[in-house]
Amino acid sequence: MSNSGDHGVALAPDDIDALARSARDGDRDALESLLAEVRPRVLNICRGVLPYSGDAEDACQEAMLNVATKIGSWGGRGRFTTWLHVVSVNSSRTTYRRLKNLATPTDFEDGAHDRPDPRTTSVIAGTRLDLLEAMDTIERDHPQFVEPLLLRDVYGLPYDEIAALVGAPLGTVKAQIHHGRKLARPLLRGDR
Length: 192
Hints:
mainly alpha; Rna Polymerase Sigma Factor, Chain: A; Arc Repressor Mutant, subunit A
């Protein structure tokens, strides 16, 4: 098994899974090799949510820390890279929320402070603000729809992989995605 850092060749999915199992079982060297192997993938996933380079790097760092500290939560039923997708997307969303909350309020001429309208103003350059805001809105009342919807419609994972990842029957996952889409459409059109 050669590491991509050694020879520039990415590991096959089965090799990544084997490395992840070793890391999950406490092999520190395997964890270091795994983190080096998956970092480019994690950064690409984070860039898909947060295209602004600095924000994506922050999210990637958070995701890598989560992988290192929470690898024990990967059950090993599905591909490690599928679990990694979820960790990366969730880290991106957390980074977005943190940056949004830290955004400097706009000063208006009368001295009043107000936050920019999130439907029209990006607080983070290049962010898919409409999608992130829609997912946050849906998550408040229907959290079960967000993860399957993001995994299917943003990252294009197959329904069966999503079902294995979230631990739900295939029909339930399809229904969650369908209902999530119905909830997202008006939010993405601005019909709040």
